């Protein structure tokens, strides 16, 4: 009797499920006898059945919120470390600004020296050309002394700030070497350049690469100088410059240069030597070059 009543109730609820679920026939079939008595809400036709799903919270989210909900401030050790970094960076920035102030004055003097030395291509008297540049050498020595005083505040960090005055120093060396060659016809040695600039201290010396690159800048000026001297009637100048550049090129060949800026400048020295050789060759075939037995007196043949 009880089983018959349960079967009658199950059959009564089947049309209602079929109405609200069009895919009822696709659902898996089950035995009518196994269906239990449904609740009163399902039996009533005036109250359609609604299914609600409650979203469960992710265990990872709960765990993350419990981890981050407590400590929000950074550890004291981290703050102290970055505070030390801030102080050191501020000190380095202030020191670099002082260095750049001195370097700007050095650059200003080198522009004046270079502008005065350009008159050598106009065949002016050598003493007149060198008068103004030589007067600026003492000013350069004073500025490099100030630069050494600034660097004394950070001993052992010469190469940390070296790039701030490197290019200016290379230009200064090239100008000093050109002036020295115009006067003597010889190469300005490294120790002589250090003495002129006051950079002969243990903590503040003239970098060897800066000196070598300055000599390469010197060779870049030689082909133009040779051509202008020939036009001015100084036919012995190509031979003197050719001998000087040949010796300088042979000296550079002793060095094991890497693929860096110095190696590129050395390649330019080779091209400068080739251009001077072409000028000297033209002089020889026109029988305008003097004999190799003539004395090498620098540029005293200028008018």
TrEMBL record:
The keyword Lipid metabolism belongs to this UniProt entry's keyword annotation: no
The UniProt record lists the keyword Nucleus: yes
One Pfam family recorded for the sequence: Translin
GO terms, biological process: RNA metabolic process
Transmembrane portions of the chain: none
GO cellular component: cytoplasm; nucleus
Main location: cytoplasm
Cellular compartment(s): Cytoplasm; Nucleus
Keywords: Cytoplasm, DNA-binding, Nucleus, RNA-binding
Similarity comment text for this entry: Belongs to the translin family.
Protein name: Translin
Source organism per UniProt: Citrus x changshan-huyou
């Amino acid at each position: 009797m009880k089983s018959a009543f349960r079967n009658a109730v199950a059959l009564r609820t089947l049309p209602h499920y079929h109405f609200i679920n069009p895919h009822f026939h696709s659902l898996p079939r089950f035995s009518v006898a196994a269906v239990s008595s449904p609740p009163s809400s399902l039996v009533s036709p005036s109250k359609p059945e609604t299914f609600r799903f409650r979203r469960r919270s992710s265990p990872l989210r709960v765990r993350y919120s419990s981890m981050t909900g407590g400590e929000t401030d950074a550890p004291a050790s981290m703050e102290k470390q970055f505070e030390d970094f801030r102080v050191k960076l501020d000190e380095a920035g202030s020191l670099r600004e002082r260095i750049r102030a001195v370097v700007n004055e050095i650059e200003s003097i080198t522009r004046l020296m270079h502008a005065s030395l350009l008159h050598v291509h106009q065949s002016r008297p050598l003493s007149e050309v060198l008068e103004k540049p030589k007067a600026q050498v003492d000013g350069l020595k004073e500025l490099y002394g100030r630069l050494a005083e600034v660097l004394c505040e950070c001993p052992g960090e010469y190469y940390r700030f070296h790039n701030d005055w490197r290019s200016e120093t290379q230009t200064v060396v090239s100008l000093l070497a050109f002036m020295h060659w115009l006067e003597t016809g010889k190469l300005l040695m490294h120790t002589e350049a250090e003495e002129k600039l006051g950079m002969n201290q243990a903590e503040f010396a003239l970098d060897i690469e800066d000196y070598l690159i300055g000599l390469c800048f010197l060779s870049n000026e030689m082909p133009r100088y040779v051509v202008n001297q020939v036009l001015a009637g100084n036919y012995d100048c190509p031979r003197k410059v050719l001998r000087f550049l040949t010796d300088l090129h042979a000296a550079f060949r002793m060095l094991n240069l890497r693929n860096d800026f110095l190696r590129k400048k050395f390649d330019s020295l080779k091209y400068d030597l080739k251009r001077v050789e072409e000028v000297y060759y033209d002089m020889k075939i026109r029988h305008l070059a003097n004999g190799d037995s003539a004395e090498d007196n620098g540029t005293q043949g200028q008018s």
